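Researcher: Let's try something more involved. This one mixes different molecule types, so please make sure each is placed in the same coordinate frame as the others.
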Amino acid sequence: DAGVTQSPTHLIKTRGQQVTLRCSPKSGHDTVSWYQQALGQGPQFIFQYYEEEERQRGNFPDRFSGHQFPNYSSELNVNALLLGDSALYLCASSSRRRLMAPDTQYFGPGTRLTVL
Amino acid sequence: GQQVMQIPQYQHVQEGEDFTTYCNSSTTLSNIQWYKQRPGGHPVFLIQLVKSGEVKKQKRLTFQFGEAKKNSSLHITATQTTDVGTYFCAGWSGAGSYQLTFGKGTKLSVIP
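Model: All components are placed in one shared frame. Result:
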């Protein structure tokens, strides 16, 4: 049973460029959440996707956008990259039943993004 | 918005000593989760606490959820080198929110 997978593992971009990160959830999971983890910090919630829609967004600008596909995989897009966007981007999948407490989140290995 | 604070930020212990990290939320939580992140790794789920005053144990790890559901702690008895990593708490505020708010974590170093 494959866990959460993310690609690419590492990425180097320059300011102003755009980037797309990909995530495949754990088998049987239908909900994908994206987090940004700066060095020495805890993961910060970017947004969550369920049934191909963004269900909730954290405190991130519109430069951060996402998508979920019918097979539950997801993409995170960041436009107009800033130096401060350098971080580890984590994808977490879960099986979320409506109006109930969040199930265990299974994190992927992350994508390390460096913006020069 | 909801804030989750953890102390201490760093803890260095001699192998065999105990370790405790504390988590405090600015708002009442519906539940709290704990994760461990090894150096260079990703967060791995440890446990979820839901009930007021709940205490759960996993071998040498003891997790507590405060009576007011605004604080939590993780205690490790007789630390081992395999306990090295950063421990995060993450709180969920309840119905209507799908967001887990993480603390900044406590980085544990164990001196053999």
